[in-house]
Design goal:
By secondary structure, this protein is of the alpha+beta class. The chain has one helix spanning 108-128; strands spanning 34-37, 43-44, 81-85. The relative contact order is 0.11. The model is unreliable at 9-27 (pLDDT under 50).
């Protein structure tokens, strides 16, 4: 057993004007973010607008009248909506995106293609078993 005190490992210091790779965040335009109604789950997407209420596509949620706008499904006010980010943002917490064999970095649309494509492929393999005699 050694009586020497533990040695400290030198840490690399980052100069005050630089940004490390872990601290890099993409600045997003909040006018492109989608908002979800916490009461019913309706998602307002600025790229689609709301045809039922006559809101054209490209209208940001922040540009809507906070007094006059209500959820087209449950009639909740603007305060019931929460920001869920842009459409192409991977879902989940930022610290969990590096786990899961890269699947956590996929957008919800890409995950749907992966899941249902896998089901279609499994079904095709199942049907191909009938060709064996």
């Amino acid at each position: 057993m050694s009586t020497e005190p533990p040695t400290e490992t030198p840490t690399e210091e980052v100069p005050a004007g630089t940004v490390s790779e872990a601290d890099e965040t993409v600045v997003e335009d909040p006018s492109t973010h989608r908002f979800e109604c916490r009461s019913c789950g309706f998602v307002y997407d600025p790229a689609e607008g709301v045809k039922k209420l006559g809101i054209p596509s490209g209208t940001s949620f922040l540009d809507l009248d906070p007094v006059g706008f209500r959820c087209p499904v449950c009639r909740s006010r603007v305060g019931a909506f929460k920001d869920i980010g842009p459409r192409n943002k991977p879902s989940g917490f930022e610290e969990n995106l590096n786990f899961g064999l890269g699947v956590n970095r996929l957008t919800p649309g890409q995950k749907n293609v992966l899941i249902f494509g896998g089901f279609a492929l499994a079904f095709a393999f199942f049907l191909s078993l009938y060709s064996l005699r």
